[in-house]
Amino acid sequence: MSVVSETCESVNVAIDHRKGPRRRGDALYAAIFEATLAELTAVGYAELKMEHVANRARASKGSLYRRWSSRAELVADAVHHTLPGCCAKPDTGCTREDILGCLRGFANLLNGPSGEAVRGLMAETIRDADLMEVVRTRFIEPGVNLFLDVLRRGAARGEVRATALTTRIASVGPDLLRQYFLVHRSPIPDQVLIEIVDEVIMPLVRL
Amino acid sequence: MSVVSETCESVNVAIDHRKGPRRRGDALYAAIFEATLAELTAVGYAELKMEHVANRARASKGSLYRRWSSRAELVADAVHHTLPGCCAKPDTGCTREDILGCLRGFANLLNGPSGEAVRGLMAETIRDADLMEVVRTRFIEPGVNLFLDVLRRGAARGEVRATALTTRIASVGPDLLRQYFLVHRSPIPDQVLIEIVDEVIMPLVRL
DNA sequence: GTGCCATCGGAACGCCACGTGCTCTAGTCT
DNA sequence: AGACTAGAGCACGTGGCGTTCCGATGGCAC
Predict the structure, then answer these.
(1) Nearest to B48 by CA among B63, B36, B33
(2) Which of A25, A53, A189, B145 is the most exposed place for a label (fewest CB within 10 A)?
(3) What residues of chain A have any CB closer than 8 angstroms to a CB in chain B?
(4) Lowest-pLDDT range, A2-11, A74-83, A190-199?
(5) Would you call B16 exposed, middle or buried from its count of C-beta atoms within 10 A (0-12, 13-18, 19+)?
């Protein structure tokens, strides 16, 4: 994926590319994803317009609607397409550091360009049950499973009580972080992550 | 406030009331709030239209926009207007019961007609920093303070450790409940509340 | 190379809700 | 009674949505 050249403002100039080189298939997908993220970075989710994405991607609205039935689904795909490395599993040998590492990974994602996308996606998700199902499967459950793995490793080392290995407890970290992100503005201060770990999660999972 | 007569579908018939009895001041406010909640119950926040609220309230769009600059602020006011009794402070003498009582109070609110309003309000809040400030002050912080009071009483009885009397810990209950509400559909099962209390909050605050 | 055809880009369209004028009128205050 | 405020209805301009049409193009079979 090439470097995004324009990130400070939206682009809405319509140049005629009917005679230019025309992409299809994967190349077009990639261009649309890149344009979507660039627009998200530039104007945020609330102000993201399908037509602007199309113009930036040098594509047509028709090509967008042929693939995604709504803005939310486009953004969900675009974001999901860019987070292969977000689920790096920290394994420092210390449960507290692992948990903090997980939270920092999430926080970095939310503080970055994808954060604006996630924010808008959450807004749309709240209103749409089907989309909520997609988001839960793609974004939320993997996060919980990541925490559950960390807790399991901690339990194997004897740092975590066995009865703490529940979905409910593994959800606490992601839930609190997500809630903070939704209720406050980014960037999320590192101090908040440390408080979540030291005041809530560690007292909860320690022997 | 009178009983809402029509809750199953939206009303969008425009009858000329220029010659009819005309309300102003509090009576008009009350009619608009009632119509807003009725529309919320009927069609949900996402499908709520200012014009439909106006018609149901036998008011004009102008009267709405003269008072509120956006749908979100109207809904925020309407919801806030209807929750005088939501902050009843349970005092059963048992910390677990008090906490569970608080959560059940919130859950009842979210499962009722106001829940749809809160959901939509959260969606709007995510996108609007100013509105977020309003929501935090009006809805979120009072909830945290309620929990803090419960914990303080528990500490006075010797059921809660003194170091658990922090905003961070008092926020855990409301945050987890809110997160569940946003990510899942209502109604919120009582079992979820019990799990939050017994798996998370009580282990966290106990001596 | 040549023809075929799915797909592309662009443009125009109808639609719907928004938010704002404007006019007329009902209530309120002096 | 007269003046003034504020509400009701209506019409309008705006902007984004999602669709449809048309001409163009690139890949593919032959």
Answers:
(1) B36
(2) A25
(3) 44-46, 119-120, 122-129, 132, 136, 140, 166, 168-169, 171-172, 175-176, 178-180, 182-185, 195-196, 199-200, 203-204
(4) A2-11
(5) exposed
Could you give the percent of chain A with pLDDT greater than 70? 88
List the single residue in A with minimal CA-CA distance to B137: A183
From the list B126, B182, B199, the residue facing A168 with the nearest CB is B199
Q: Which residues contact B145 (CB under 8 A, 6 or more apart)?
A: B170
Contacts of A41 (CB under 8 A, 6+ apart): A4, A7, A113, A116
Task: Answer yes or no: do A126 and B132 touch at CB < 8 A.
Answer: no
Instruction: Give pairs for B11-14: CB < 8 Å, separation 24+.
Output: B11/B52, B11/B55, B11/B56, B12/B49, B12/B51, B12/B52, B12/B55, B13/B55, B14/B55
* Nearest residue in chain B measured CA to CA from A172: B176
Tens-place pLDDT, residues B28-65: 999 999 999 999 888 888 889 999 999 999 999 999 99
DSSP for residue B163:
G
Longest dimension (CA), chain B: 68
Answering whether pTM is above 0.85, one says no
